[in-house]
Amino acid sequence: MSGMFDALEVRGVSFKNRIAVSPMSQYRAKDGLANDWHLVHLGRFALGGAGLVFAEATAVEEAGRRTHGDLGLWEDRQIEPLLPVTKFIAAEGAIPGIQLGHAGRKASERRPWHGETPVDELDIHERNEAPWTAMAPSSIPYADGWPAPIEMSETDIETTLLAFKSAARRSKEAGFKVIEIYAAHGFLVHQFLSSISNQRTDKWGGNAERRRRFAVEVARAVRSDWPEEYPLIFRLSATDWLEGGLEVEEVIETARVLAAEGVDMIDCSSGGIGGRERPRRMKIEQGFQVPFAARIRKEARIATMAVGFLWDATACQAVIENGHADMIAMARELLDDPNWPLHAAALLGEDTDYAMWHEEFGYWLDKRDRLTRKLGLR
Ligand SMILES: Cc1cc2nc3c(=O)[nH]c(=O)nc-3n(C[C@H](O)[C@H](O)[C@H](O)COP(=O)(O)O)c2cc1C
Q1: Ligand 1 centroid vs 269 CA: distance in angstroms?
Q2: Pick from 205, 307, 218, 291: which is nearest to 258 by CA?
Q3: Could you tell me whether strands 8-10 and 52-59 are parallel, antiparallel, or unpaired per DSSP bridges?
Q4: What is the pLDDT of residues 273-313, one digit of tens each?
Q5: Whose Cα sits closest to atom 28 in ligand 1?
Q6: pTM (2 decimals)?
Q7: Beta-bridge mates of residue 234
Q8: Distance CA 90, CA 320 (A)
Q9: The ligand 1 atom nearest the CA atom of 22
Q10: In the CATH hierarchy, which top-level class contains the domain 8-347?
Q11: What are phi and psi of 125, to 5 degrees?
Q12: For residue range 187-196, what is the model confidence (pLDDT) as tens digits?
């Protein structure tokens, strides 16, 4: 039985534990370029003990950005500013990963704190940020009040697949060792998978096999320019939570097909395909998406990552020990406490004397602990 603090080998990469920092968009990039913010933001998690640190959703095409602040890898000059980030993460004992994506019909959106609504003329005056036209499998808007995207032509699809391939090559050159494809939360790859957003009648739409073709081609394109010894992960929405949308049974089959294409793990999230309201079927509680990771792992026979509303160390340990997932990913809890993995290790008795900490911190914390105990202060 493996636990959260046991190492995990995937292809030629060894994670020191099963804790991943879930991709978290910062909306801090300019022209897709990383900067000191990304180094410090992601660096904190490497110091905090996570085994895998994912950089946020990174656009493979300029028009595939969700907001003006998204990271990008659509051109070579975007590689260099990422080098200090991957170098630092790797030097401090974590594996640097990147999430590659394309926003499709969710492109040209305002940052969350500016409303998560479509960018329009107002943004030009307020922030010098102009709207751009989004493209998608079908010309169906994301939600009420959103512009209709342009339906992608065969050439658009081929160009986008090549963009995923080039971004994989750039990810390698930037020092990343794991790629996750963003095929969840209503972004482009998910838009192809779900019939709510894909109403095409050509080979890219229709039955489940046709709707999954784009995801398969993305996996092939990325694998063709990504080292054999490096893991490839897909983040899927295990269900759309909506009538007429994706259900877990179909997603299990997608996971099976992707596994045959050299995908090593499925990061099991859910939802996001359309509209702003939370679907009625979606009941949020701690670890509510774990059952998807468990089913996909068991039925598609592929490694999984569990994510969403996880914060309790004992519950996370149980996810791994019970074989419901191979890794857990966390976002908001790690924003609150980047040292969560180290605190969890102490709580679970995996680290009793700060030995897992970097000695620049651990030495002092252990010394203080012994002293305060001796003096009866704590
Ligand atoms: C600030 C922030 C940014 C996020 N950006 C992304 C992203 O770039 N890609 C992605 O797949 N999910 C993104 N998410 C979703 C998280 O990765 C995660 O799946 C979700 O927050 C649920 O996990 P949690 O309950 O541990 O926060 C983001 C979440 C937050 C809080």
Answers
A1: 10
A2: 218
A3: unpaired
A4: 986 667 888 889 999 999 999 999 999 999 999 999 999 99
A5: 24
A6: 0.98
A7: 181, 266
A8: 24
A9: 17
A10: alpha beta
A11: -70, -45
A12: 999 999 999 9
